[in-house]
Amino acid sequence: MQKYQKLFLIILATFMLILLTACGSSSTSTNSGGQSETSIEDETSGEVIQAKIGVISYLSGAGAAYGEAITQGLKLAQKEINEKGEVNIELVIEDSAGEAEQAVNAGQKLMADDSILAIIGPTLSTEFFAVAPEADLNGITIMGTSTTADGIPEIGDYVFRNSIPEALAIPAAMEKAVKRTGAKKVAIIYGNDDAFTKAGFEVMKRTAEEMGLEITTIETYQKGQSDYKAQLTKIKNTNPDLVLASALYNEGAVIIDQARKMGITVPFVGGNGFNSPQVIEIAGDAANGLIVGTPYFGDSTDPKIVEFNKKYEEEYGKKPDQFAAQAYDALYIYADALKRAGTGEDRDAFRDALAETKDFEGILGLFSFNEVGDVVMDVTVVEIKDGKFVEFEE
Amino acid sequence: MLIEQLINGITLGSIYAIVALGFTLVFGVLGIINMAHGEIFMVGAFIGVLTTSVLGWPLWLAFLASIVVTSLLGYLLEIFSLRPLRGKKGVSHLAPLISTIGVSIFLENLSHHMFGAGNKPFRTAFAEIRFEIGSITIYLVQITIFVISVILMVGLSVWLSKTKAGKALRATAENLETASILGVDTKKIITLTVIIASGMGGIAGILVGMAFNSVSPQMGLSMGLKGLAIIILGGMGNVKGAMVGGLILGLSETLLVAYGDSGYRDAIAFIMIILILLIRPQGIFGSKTAEGR
């Protein structure tokens, strides 16, 4: 008998809770606690816009370092934004473990929660391709901070990104390299069993053709290979003025090392995948003369970046990377849109405000969205000189 | 161009040959494919990185350390994953194969955990020494690799045919029970075989590190598969076959890249297997009577 009584009480309590939350969300307050409703409403009806942002990130598994950098960048931005007091952002962070399936689950959870205004993430392009269509269908804004594959913003009206696609980074690097060296002949090497490096290769080939460069040879390699000498000997014998390499840094560093040993001294131009301090660590002096296009250059003397580096290091005890910087900027872009939307409740109003983002001044430079929600911004071109990344000078 | 590519091919082929020697030795005696051999090779390479780059030891000491560690691994492999399965009733003859696959997964993940996922550089001054003849650059490492592989092959052949231990090993390979009745300590011989094979894997690992300056936990898998292809090509359990097969594969891979399409590089090993299995199933140097086991 007592058992039933208990059950009845639980059901009653649940009903009351549902009623309470219903009350909460129908009013303008973002806080669903019933008791203090009036006092909070007074506050929010002032200037502070309350918003809950969902985050899906790669927090466990092999690529957890990416997710860590991203969430740290976001949290740093959150802290600063909230301190300024114009908007108050709450982050709801979910782990995707680098799996498309888990990313979708996390996404559904966030989308089903009506108090979540918009989503940031997931980390990988493959995850993003799984989650974004659903977000678009549900009418919730989603923005990638680390997704560089082709066709991401084209998924739908509610889909954005602030990470520079390869189609922007590679041509910028190639143009500058060709301008300085006066190169006429280029050789290309790329990994033909990876979607990312293959996409980079397409961009390289297209750009080379557009620029009227002669492609002396196109060589490929596969994952897990450690001997690139045959391909490189072939490249060497065609005497190119530049070598375009669409590779992830792991293989890329070994390729450039073997190339230098073989006597290929011309500069290498790479995509974003090649942009990592690890290249210098693996290849050492051989890495000199690598030119890459990147959205973020950590050693820049730009005061905004210097300050960001300082704040990040104070908070987390290490230097931020490109992923942290992009995430940091992403939250600021969201905050900016929030201010213009004027409310943290209306998903559609937020989407429209975000799409209007123009010449936003972030640490990565002036940032705008084009009509499909892709990035419009200047690319920084860097090169490795004397064992470190420096800004490319013409 | 051709000469440079030939040098590239011979270097690669010599490394394949050393890896294949380890495979062929274990197969010859135990009649099983040691799937963990590629990973033992990888551990050998990592020991090389650790001793030269991190601890700053001289190269000869690195070689020694690598051989010692991989030999020890070979011993542990025999004790824990091969011996318990040997000669037991009801144990499938595939069981040791599966058990070595388990060891290979374990070793790969262990080094993934210990050394991280990426490529590690292998820096020694020795790898920088080179000669230039006209437009051709030859590295001392490339010559060393070839010489070491020839020494290992000749040494192994002589040891197998001339010494008492070698004869005992061949007797064991011929028939385990008979050899045991005739007074050969087969347990010891088998352990010795696995240890020698693993030590050779260690040598190959350190040579790859020097030649290509890239060591990663995943390198064992592709090398292991190539080694497997080579012993099928050269003839299972045949020392000369491993050497010749290794060189053939290394050269054909390199020349395919040089004069054909680099995308088919990895396919060539497996096309060769298909052809050899159709035309001469026992391998180039294999004898037809190898079926007896």
UniProtKB/TrEMBL annotation, chain A:
Keywords: Amino-acid transport, Signal, Transport. The keyword Signal applies. PROSITE patterns: PROKAR_LIPOPROTEIN. It comes from the Bacteria. Residues 51-387 form the Leucine-binding protein domain. It holds the Pfam family Peripla_BP_6. Belongs to the leucine-binding protein family. This is Branched-chain amino acid transport system substrate-binding protein. It comes from Ureibacillus thermosphaericus.
UniProtKB/TrEMBL annotation, chain B:
Keywords: Amino-acid transport, Cell inner membrane, Cell membrane, Membrane, Transmembrane, Transmembrane helix, Transport. InterPro entries: ABC_transp_permease, BCAA_transport_permease. The keyword Chaperone does not apply. One of its GO terms (biological process) is D-alanine transmembrane transport. It is found in: Cell membrane. It is a multi-pass membrane protein. One of its GO terms (molecular function) is L-valine transmembrane transporter activity. The keyword Membrane applies. It comes from the Bacteria. The chain crosses the membrane at residues 6-33, 63-82, 94-116, 136-160, 189-212, 267-285. Coiled coil: none annotated. GO terms for cellular component: plasma membrane. Its main location: membrane. It holds the Pfam family BPD_transp_2. Belongs to the binding-protein-dependent transport system permease family. LivHM subfamily. This is Branched-chain amino acid transport system permease protein. It comes from Ureibacillus thermosphaericus. The lineage of its organism: Bacteria, Bacillati, Bacillota, Bacilli, Bacillales.
